[in-house]
Amino acid sequence: MRAFVSFSVLALIVVGLALSLSHVPFGKDRMQVANYYLDHGVADTGATNLVTAVVLNYRALDTLGEVTVLFIASLGLGVFLSWPKKKEGTQEEGKRELPEASLIVRRGSQFLFPLIILFGGYIFLHGHLTPGGGFQGGSVIASAFLLMFLGNNAYRLRHTPLTVTESLAGITFVVVGLIGLGVGGYFLNNFLPKGSMFSLFSAGVIPILYSAIGLKVGAELSGIVANMFESRSER
Amino acid sequence: MTTGNPMMYVGAVGLIMIGLFTVLSKRNLIKIIVGLTLLDTGVNLLLVAIGYIHNRTAPILTQAHADPSKMVDPVPQALVLTAIVIGLGVTALALALAIRVYGHYKTLDTRKIRGLKW
Fold first, then answer.
1. Are A89 and A77 contacting, i.e. CB atoms less than 8 angstroms apart?
2. Is B30 on the interface with A (CB under 8 A)?
3. Distance CA A80, CA B97 (A)
């Protein structure tokens, strides 16, 4: 019954999608707005990675919204996992002793940890020049913390530095936007000089914003990982 | 100009449908979350595929490759870039809820969880 209902719903959706999408000429040519971004992106923003130009210049306000969504998700996760502290009698079951990882895994993860952090920093600092950016760099940084948690049973992350980093990065984003409002007349105005193409210090406020996003996303995702691991060790 | 390969869209929509079917028909909460992730991936793939144009490169200027007329649409890519991270956050939140549900009901079966039956 369930499968039948599911299949009929899916069939309806597939037919609807096929009927509505079959006449749209996807993949033929770009839209007007994309042509504008590609032709004027570098002159407008100074960022040679045009995806970054869209994310942090033309649509920077949307990016602020996305960062807020991620913040709320990580906040909700922290609340759900830590709120009723050890009340539901989970002590007796499910508390398995995890075997300690082998020496190679332990030392290997400790050796790789700073390199992965460095790589994440590189990705978000060069987000306006090369593929990558704040979201990707932040995810790479969080993966370094995940590796540490997997390789070392006793590894714990202190939450205060994470929270401070996250808050400061979020405040930086908004403050840069407000300075743009004061200087140029609209929120998140790119008020710094654009610099020359292909150099690290170019594209005005975009590297600052992407670094803020990178630190914020990294701190949030690391907090998510830490919360998950701590809830495991509690029960 | 050649059109894109329709298999891209078929594959992406197929992934969405597999995810939707998993969400609708499975009874284990973890499997439902896996279905949500598949759905998310399928939507991202569909968006990128819509922006793709045959024989064009990523919208990133380099010194060797600085011709904007040979690039694909950057707007869906910018959209998907953030959507991936949001999807990760949503998955983590759903998993946290599943942990809580398991702590309370001692099961992940939606038939045995009051208020989740259908």
1. no
2. no
3. 7
Instruction: Give the ipTM.
Output: 0.78
Q: How far is CA A213 from the centre of its chain?
A: 7
Give the whole-angstrom CA distance, residue A180 versus residue A140: 29
| Domains of chain B, start order | 6-57+67-105 (1.10.287.3510)
Closest CA to A45 of A185, A213, A210, A192: A192
Give start and end residues of each alpha helix (H) in A83-133. Answer: 103-125
Contact B28, A15 (CB under 8 A): no
Query: What is the pLDDT, as a whole number, of residue A232?
Result: 63
Q: Are A144 and A121 in contact (CB under 8 A)?
A: no
pLDDT per residue of chain B (118 residues) written in tens, 0 to 9 = 345 567 778 888 889 889 988 888 888 889 999 999 999 999 999 888 887 777 777 777 777 766 777 777 888 888 888 888 888 888 988 888 888 888 888 888 877 777 766 5
Rounded Cα–Cα distance for residues A18 and A11 (Å) = 10
d(CA A200, CA A190): 16
> Do the Cβ atoms of B75 and A14 come within 8 Å?
no
Can you tell me the distance from the alpha carbon of B47 to that of B49, in angstroms, rounded to the nearest whole number?
5
One-letter amino acid at A109 equals: S
Of A130, A131, A134, the closest CA to residue A56 belongs to A134
Q: Do B24 and A131 touch (CB under 8 A)?
A: no
Q: Which of A20, A64, A66, A90 to mutate to test the interface with B (most CBs of B within 10 A)?
A: A66
Residue A28: name the closest of B44, B8, B72 by CA.
B72
SS3 B91: helix
Chain B residues touching A55 at Cβ < 8 A? 78, 81-82
Interface of B with A in 62-91 (CB under 8 A): 62-63, 68-69, 71-75, 77-78, 81-82, 84-86, 88-90
Whether residues A220 and B89 touch (CB distance < 8 A) is answered with: yes
